[in-house]
Specification:
The chain is 3% helix and 45% strand. By secondary structure, it is mainly β. A hairpin with a 4-residue loop joins strand 5 and strand 6.
Length: 170
């Protein structure tokens, strides 16, 4: 080692060495780290924290975690609880699945739009949440030839831009 680098890593402090991290978000002085075997929660000093949420996702591959502007943490997974909205301040957990109207139980990606709505991409389409409630869903019947959504962005005029798995951009 010739010189000290300008980057620091919390891997040792958080016991993350050897773990493949799929997604990470920061909310309310906590780090939410998703990997192939569940959720790792760390405080601001990278000390691990266990709670109901980490228990819930034990041995579940987490695809995406997003912290929204309202203090919530949204988690997407392929599991019995494909979309979870967690409010750390209240300690509340809301779960959404196909039984609640979600397009599918394999959630892959989450994005917050400039109007505060949350858009979730699943293997079967997209779902739009407003104020924490599922309001709209779009799938194959709505014109998504390949409804497997891999990425979501917001266009300059507020339109949704969706990247599909093999059918281009919607």
């Amino acid at each position: 080692k010739y010189t000290e680098g300008c980057f620091d890593t919390p891997n040792s402090m958080a016991a993350l060495d050897g773990i493949t991290i799929n997604t990470i978000a920061y909310q309310q002085e906590s780090w939410y780290i998703g990997n192939d075997t569940g959720l790792i929660l760390c405080d601001d000093n990278w000390n691990r924290v266990e709670n109901e949420l980490t228990d819930m996702f034990e041995n579940i591959r987490i695809r995406c975690i997003k912290a929204d502007s309202r203090g919530n943490v949204w988690i997407a997974s392929y599991s019995d609880f494909p979309v979870v909205c967690y409010n750390a301040q209240e300690g509340s957990i809301k779960q959404f699945s196909s039984e609640d109207g979600l397009t599918g139980n394999k959630a892959r990606v989450i994005e917050e739009m400039s109007d505060g709505s949350i858009v979730v991409g699943t293997q079967s389409g997209i779902d739009i949440f407003v104020n924490g409630e599922l309001k709209k869903s779009y799938g194959h019947a709505d014109g998504l030839s390949n409804p497997t959504i891999l990425c979501i962005a917001e266009g300059k005029d507020g339109e949704l831009v969706l990247g599909s798995d093999g059918d281009g951009i919607y």
